């Protein structure tokens, strides 16, 4: 059901006329703020502080993707440096994570884009590690995977703790995972949020779930640090069983969920002594992130459509 709806929703959200109509609609703050911490860096810091009070760490994402000019890409780097500074000023740097989308740092800008994104991401990782902040790199659509993995490998030469997201829905992940999880590599395993062709991805929900379970098995058995990024109760239970089987203590893996989704489960796991990290997006460029959340879950779409009805 969810997978059947994902493609049309992502397609519709990408149509210029629909995008324009939605962006010009005065969305109720409540709807967007369920998934997005706010538009300003101070909103992100406030969210990190609230999560910390519940024993939950944060991975903070300055929203932005597919920039079209070098100026925007440089602004993306600047925003992340400001975020690191703001976390440090608030005394929240230690244990926090900044998570980067390379397309927001210029990866897609023609021939020189990959090098530009790599330089910028490296500079962010240097500044983060000086302040005790972790860095991870998000995974975007399948055409970007090679460049993203190479960038992560180059960042790890300076900062070995740089993490990376791998998508269970991509067939190639079976081969990428052992390489990226070698020698303590931090790997965030996700199902995958993009609409991918069947030539490169599993298309059914069950197939993706099975691929995720296989990926988890390899991660927990290997040398890497598993970051179990899912809201799926069956996969969370599997991760707990695998941790037990491979005698991993609660500081040898972590659960990750999105801001505003299954918050009670995040608190429950943290209270039980597990390391939990919430992915906290903020910034004015929330459209792409928001529509992927709608595509994942029809209930989110219904919630959103209700908010458009006046009264
Ligand atoms: P789903 O199949 O969507 O949901 C499984 C089950 O979880 C549902 O049946 C339900 O029981 C429960 N559930 C889900 N949502 C809710 C809800 N709102 N309320 C209550 N129960 C719910 N994708 C990328 O492509 N690249 C990335 O870099 C990336 N980073 C991510 C980082 C984090 C921390 C997380 C959590 C996700 C990330 N994603 C990323 C998104 C991911 O790929 C999935 O699209 C998203 O997590 C939904 O998949 P799921 O594993 O939660 O399973």
From TrEMBL:
Substrate binds at residues 101, 292-293. InterPro entries: FAD-linked_oxidoreductase-like (IPR029041), PRODH_bac_arc (IPR008219), Proline_DH_dom (IPR002872), Proline_oxidase (IPR015659). Its EC number is 1.5.5.2. The keyword Signal does not apply. Residues 45-303 form the Proline dehydrogenase domain. Gene3D superfamilies: 3.20.20.220. Its cofactor is FAD. FAD binds at residues 139, 167, 191-193, 230-231. Pathway: Amino-acid degradation; L-proline degradation into L-glutamate; L-glutamate from L-proline: step 1/2. GO terms for biological process: L-proline catabolic process to L-glutamate. One of its GO terms (molecular function) is proline dehydrogenase activity. Pfam families: Pro_dh (PF01619). The keyword Flavoprotein applies. Binds 1 FAD per subunit. Keywords: FAD, Flavoprotein, Nucleotide-binding, Oxidoreductase, Proline metabolism. It catalyses: L-proline + a quinone = (S)-1-pyrroline-5-carboxylate + a quinol + H(+). PANTHER family: PROLINE DEHYDROGENASE 1, MITOCHONDRIAL, PROLINE OXIDASE. This is proline dehydrogenase. It comes from Epidermidibacterium keratini.
